[in-house]
Amino acid sequence: MTTGATPPKYKIKIDDDECMLCERCIDNCSYGVFRREGQKIVADSRKCTACHRCIAMCPRDAITLIEKPNDYRSHPLWTRDAREAIYKQANSGQIILSGMGNARDYPIIFDRIVLDACQVTNPSIDPLREPMELRTYIGKKPRQITLEKTKSGDCDLKTKLSPNLKLETPVMIGHMSYGAISLNAQLSMAKAVSEMGTFMGTGEGGLHKKLYPYQDHMIVQVASGRFGVDINYLERGAAIEIKIGQGAKPGIGGHLPGEKVEEEVSKTRMVPLHSDAISPAPHHDIYSIEDLAQLVRSLKEATEWKKPVFVKIAAVHNVAAIAAGIARSSADVVVVDGFRGGTGAAPRVFRDHVGIPIEAAIAAVDDKLRQQGIRNEVSLVASGGIRDSADLTKAIALGADAVYIGTAALIAMGCRVCGSCYRGLCPWGIATQKPELVSRINPDEASKNVANLIKGWTLELAELMGAAGINSLESLRGNRDRLRGYMLDEEMLKVLDIKPIGA
Amino acid sequence: MEPVTIDAKNLHYTPLNIRIRELIAEGKKKIILNNICGQRFIGNGIRGDDVEITVNGVPGGDLGMFMCGPTIIVRGNCDHAPGNTMDSGKIVIYGSAGDATAHSMRGGEVFVKCDIGYRGGIHMKEYSEKRPVLVVGGKAGSFSGEYMAGGLLIILGIDREAPVKGKGIGSGIHGGKIIIRGDIDEKLLGIGAKKEQLTEDDRKDLEKYLKEYCRLFDYDYKELSESVYTKIVPASARPFAGKYCWE
Ligand code: SF4
Ligand code: SF4
Q: Per-residue pLDDT tens for B133-171?
């Protein structure tokens, strides 16, 4: 070590006049920042991750946290992050891992798209008294249907419909595995989606038996590691998702380090205690779109064609062509995860530099599928950095049937996006398996928070739709005329297929 | 109980699998499939420890995927990934099998009389009493036993120049073991794999499966038991532990 240690990122200060020495901060900080020295609480700011747990728990508001100003010589190119990454790698020679989503300051396309509203010439709709159709069905739709008149004059549907998921709101929770997050976090979200009539993903961590009561609202995942995958697991899920890629780390696999594989995680993933759980970059039985089609059909055959099969890919440059291939592979749903998707751990260079934003990806995929005349046959789910009901509404208007949220659901349970998920010490009890931390989440309470978030967004979505004179989700989907680009260049407008403001 | 026969000539895999499931549900224990020609997914996700299915012909990919309990006997060659993510049961192939044989298998046994393709036994893993075993009589292609997280892969190379053709044996292996008849050139091993001498326990383990191989395929046990074997194991249980540092 010749480069020396880097300065702390945050500064914790305690107001001794306010502090009543209750020591709650000491108990609550799992990173060991605080200690008591006589009649004083002392903080070691170096260890702080800015998770805000101590601040939330201090009864006297005695704690202040500031992001410590950059005390390197300022430089526009050699930023603090750039320099510190070099120190780290100069010392270790290793790949830098990081948590949560993309931490670069890329322009956010969602924020440069505005929604439309009706004025005078065509009235807006009042969601208070008019029915708003927010229910949507995710899965394969027939190209056409055949009806047959019965003797009584009724019509019978002759076409055999594929299984679909019935969503009361187009907001689902994406895949965060047991192992990466705690059982209480999963339980809270599972209760919430069951209550709200929507779905959540298991991630590649198997399905813990405590989630069985919610299995009708769970999408079970089959990823390259095939952890926890057996016929019982497949049969339990309401749908099955094949994970090819994820937005935070396109093109690479996953790795749950052995320390996190404690007893229940080991049982649920079906791997030995404390063994590394490695998901290779590719599925070793998928080397082509034909192989993918084979896995899709294989899963359907094993579960007697009773479940929709999702295929999730990361948004990358040629995402539209890939999605079109997937749509023809017998998959029922294509999930596209944009480059702002979160993660427990990803190589920093991937998280911050690989992939494309979901806004462009979803527009390109929707376009390609429409050009090929197959958009009506598959469903499209957008994910990766959906922050509010405006993002949700814009994603649908760009062509999605529904969205997956991830980080937003965690934030609803207390997450402060400190980005230290990989350390297994999450003070909010989310990204941890330590029983004393996990118990900080009360699934009954946290599920209410998650359900409230979905409820709030759903109400806002209905209002936004009403304002735009739209009364059904079907009419909003791919309705790009309700969008305008603000300060977007011509090429970007073309990709999004939207007009600029004023046009 | 009399075996039930299905003539699979020109039969698509879905009605074929439906029929198999119906027969199992009716309590039939022995099922014979005749004229199998490339039908995929045969026996996927089926259950029943005492069910035995004989396949006459050449089944397509993913034979017995997610299978839990039954035995499938193939009187012919097999396409890719027989035993894919299989939970328990047994697959016996009286010929050769394609790529990714026993991919991600988590329990049960697959015996192949002759050769297999690339990526055999890839990412097999074991848990608790479940331990997957793949025994290959002939040769195996490159990348055999990659990412193995448990289980046992035995490659015998009978009547072949070498048991493994190609490199990348056991890349990223972090559990289980590979036993190969004869010696193996270090150069063919993947990252994270190393050669080791067999212990007494390994020999006992091996003996059991050699005997079974010889019984199934009517081969001379003496010849196999007197051969030299090499064991390949993970160089470390944490092959990637040193690759990463944290932000
Ligand atoms: S939680 Fe607040 S009041 Fe209690 S010891 Fe810590 S700083 Fe003082
Ligand atoms: S890590 Fe969290 S709990 Fe600990 S001092 Fe920092 S903000 Fe407070």
A: 999 999 999 999 999 999 999 999 999 999 998 899 999
B24's CB contacts (< 8 A; 6+ apart) are B31, B46, B47, B48, B51, B70
Q: Whose CA is nearest to atom 6 of ligand 2?
A: A48
**What token pair was written down for A332?**
């029922």
**DSSP letter, residue A374:** -
Ligand 1: residues within 6 Å at CB?
Answer: A 14, 19-25, 41, 58-60, 62-63
pLDDT band at residue B238 under the 50/70/90 scheme: confident
Contacts of B85 in chain A (CB under 8 A): 226, 229-230
Ligand closest to CA A61: 1
Query: Shortest CB distance from B245 goes to which of A94, A258, A294?
Result: A94
Bridge partner list, B127: B130
Q: Closest to A294 (Cβ–Cβ): which among B61, B126, B243?
A: B61
User: B143, B102 in Cβ contact below 8 A?
Assistant: no
Q: Which residues pair with residue A97 across a beta bridge?
A: A347, B246
Which residues of chain A lie closer than 8 angstroms to B146, CB-CB? 280, 284
Ligand with smallest separation from the Cα of A420: 2
Task: Point out the residue among A277, A298, A419 whose CB comes nearest to the CB of B62.
Answer: A298
Question: Nearest C-alpha of chain A: how many angstroms from B156?
Answer: 23
User: Which residue of chain B has the CA closest to A344?
Assistant: B246
List, for residues A396-414, the tens digit of each pLDDT value: 999 999 999 999 999 999 9
**Cα(B35)–Cα(A231) distance, rounded to whole angstroms?**
27
Amino acid at A267: K
Confidence of residue A140 (pLDDT cuts 50, 70, 90): very high
Whether A223 shows a pLDDT value over 90: the answer reads yes
| B76-128: pLDDT as tens digits | 999 999 999 999 999 999 999 999 999 999 999 999 999 999 999 999 999 98
Burial status of residue A50 (CB atoms within 10 A of its CB: 0-12, 13-18, 19 or more):
middle
Neighbours of A46 (CB within 10 A): 15
Question: In whole angstroms, what is the distance from residue A500 CA to residue B173 CA?
Answer: 54
pLDDT in tens, A76-100: 999 999 999 999 999 999 999 999 9
Q: What are phi and psi of B76, to 5 degrees?
A: 160, -170
Mutation to probe ligand 2, out of A65, A416, A425, A428 (largest number of atoms < 8 A from CB) = A65
3-state secondary structure of A235: helix
**How many Å lie between the alpha carbon of A292 and the closest alpha carbon of chain B?**
12
Cα(A12)–Cα(A126) distance, rounded to whole angstroms? 49
* Rounded distance between C-alpha atoms, residue B210 and residue B216, angstroms: 10
Indicate the DSSP class of residue A16: T
> Interface pTM (ipTM) of the complex?
0.94
Contact A96 B150 (CB under 8 A): no
DSSP 8-state secondary structure symbol assigned to residue A359? H
Per-residue pLDDT band at A356 (split at 50, 70, 90)? very high
pLDDT at A2: 65
Taking the alpha carbons at both ends of chain B, their separation in whole angstroms is 65
Reported confidence tier of residue A6, pLDDT bands at 50, 70, 90: confident
Whether the model pTM is above 0.90 = yes
